[in-house]
Amino acid sequence: MTAMAERRDVVILGGGLVGMTLALALARQGISAHVIEREQPADLTAEGVDGRASAISSASWNLFCNIGLGPRLEPLGCPIEAIAVTDGMKPGRIDFKPAPEDGSLGRMFANRDIRLALYAAAAEQPLIAWHTGAEAVQRERGAHGVAVTLGDGRVLEGSLLIGAEGRRSPSRDEEGIALAAWDYRHRAMVTALAHEKPHQGTAWEIFYSAGPFALLPLNDLPQPTAGGLLHRSALVWTVPERDAKGVIGLSDGQFLAEVRERMGALYGRIELIAPRMAYPLSFQHAARITGQRLALVGDAAHGMHPIAGQGLNLGLRDVGALVEVLAEGMRLGLEPGDAQLLARYERWRAVDNFTTMSVMDGIVRLFGVPGRTASAVRRLGMGAVQRLPLLKRFFMDEARGMSGKLPGLLRAPA
Fold first, then answer.
1. Which residues contact 161 (CB under 8 A, 6 or more apart)?
2. Alpha helical stretches, state H, 86-224
């Protein structure tokens, strides 16, 4: 460690949705952070760079409110009032609708809107030293702290290194953490649609053997399209890798025709209102999420299929647990990199991460089995869930992120 280094409590590698949420949540507890991000904020928030939208669970929304983002984000999110799950639009679907006292099942936000809110809040927070357009060329972890050397020669020091770099985490790889990983050999086609009929806050998850097809409610457009359409939904259409090149190569008109075939007349006339993007889909789960003065959060720890939209929410649960562990430990006089605190974080997150990842992977495989018999069995099971209130309640609590031991930041503000 060098005497000329800039020192803060923690050093966060990665200033994406999870990394920056973590920095803001830590700052609310009086914990300072260096945040190192390779990209420039303007590049990450430019129109058309990330056309994805995220389903923010009730617990994750509580987190955003508890760190002061509620007023910025409230008008931008579309409440998810119901979730409809169906096997190829055949009879026997499941409808999830929360009890009035539970509020919505979550909220849909454009990723760009979340980034803009996070970056605006971070710029106002003196406990966050934000290093953008910066490359971490060397990471050191030792008995007395951590140090990260940037490409320009600056050295940033702290007590704990937090890997939030995403799926290709250098911090995880340098620690030698084993990774269970496989390629689903599918791609997610992501865009946004304007449509004639209102979505009434319903998220549709339509399963086909070739891959799920999801329509996710967004706020209405500020003004109608040229075709007079006002209502809006995000589309996530999963296609096999062998078909992806062909789908990517379709004209907009051909693409819309394929979309209509899968959603039928559900929303009437439809138009494309956003660029079409394609993302490869894979599974990866780290055998552990801590090391010497190291903690992993978000996709650095676990990456999943976008089915049910739980990936970001799982990362935000990492944030809530890690912040609570570090804040309580520091109040007792321990430093953030203390091995006891990291062991507690590991234990807290292990079951939730493993369970959620396993269930999501199982659902992907279950609905990917082709044939009429498999479809009939799935619809029989869905019909049973539809008729059993306790089972439906269990699935809704999972979707809302309200099951298990919740960190304080994920509970409703007092």
1. 10, 11, 13, 139, 141, 146, 148, 171, 293, 294, 295, 337
2. 111-123, 170-175
Residue 220 domain-assigned (yes or no): no
Q: Is 122 among the domain residues?
A: yes
Instruction: Name the pTM for this structure.
Output: 0.90
171: domain range? 6-77+110-180+283-369+406-410
CATH number of the domain that residue 161 is part of: 3.50.50.60
* Residue range 117-137, pLDDT digits in tens: 999 999 999 999 999 999 999
Q: Enumerate residue ranges in the chain where pLDDT < 50.
A: 1-4
Q: What 3-state class would DSSP assign to 164?
A: coil
Can you give the pLDDT at residue 171? Answer: 96
Name the H helices within 80-217: 111-123, 170-175
In a domain, 194, yes or no: no
* E-only strand ranges, 111-251: 128-132, 136-142, 145-150, 155-158, 160-163, 179-195, 202-208, 211-218, 231-240
Domain count, the chain: 1
